[in-house]
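Researcher: Let's continue the batch. This sequence belongs to Profilin, and it's 131 residues. Same format as the previous ones, please.
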Amino acid sequence: MSWQAYVDDHLMCDIDGQHLTAAAIVGHDGSVWAQSDSFPQFKPEEINGIMNDFNEPGYLAPTGLYLGGTKYMVIQGEPGAVIRGKKGSGGITIKKTGQALIFGIYDEPLTPGQCNMIVERLGDYLIEQGM
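Model: Same format as before. Here are the structure tokens for Profilin:
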């Protein structure tokens, strides 16, 4: 299966008539493996900050998480595995695998829990596959 198919078929899937606003699979080096059309253009330093937070949990808490110039307040996550952010009625979930970062961005009426489930389920599957 192509990386784009993982984004299109798994991350952007329909849940009760709703879906993520944007999604992507990005290598640890910031290279885009696949993304939805709506995924924001991000800066390399934003990915570096995210990687730093995975390596040093809490790194982004004082400044917030930035992606495509949008600031998210960092909320609960799983140190070294999942970062979650909130902005207004939406937010972001990022799951780290051995080689990639899985991004899901959502807005209401999709819930944070639904976004977490979509992103983390694919991330767990890719980890099982050695990715």
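Researcher: Any comment?
Model: The chain has one domain: 3-97+105-129.
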